[in-house]
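check this:
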Amino acid sequence: MDLFSIDNNETSQITIYTDGGCHGNPGAGGWGAVLLDGVNEIELSGGENMTTNNRMELTAAIEVLRYAKEHYPSRKIQLFIDSQYVKNGITAWIKNWKAKGWKTADKKAVKNQDLWVALDKLNEESEVEWTWVKGHAGIKYNEVCDSLCQMEIAKRSN
């Protein structure tokens, strides 16, 4: 389906791109997201003063899915993300983590469990297709998300 042919009715798909990162790990962090509803390009961003790259990648997905749930509750979502950690975590690893009481295969506590629980709930409440894209590869909206992320990091950096 051509992105620009998507209509604005309640059954059409929305497209989302996300990115997160930080300066230092941990350090000042930021996240960015772009939601494309067929008519509008909606940019969302935020950050934290002391965080990790993975927490910001997760937060980007959580915040934009919350936004989509509120504003587009019936829409299917195609979410493009440049984090293998988030993509693999939500589509594959999470089933075993939950079955094992939020423990990894080597019996360690799952890092960022609070965010994984929130993301899992949103993922179950929506119809999301998760697609990994290579970061810093000239993909327009991934680059926009990176710029939003860098802007948020700059706000929080000394």
In short: The chain is about 40% helix and 25% strand.
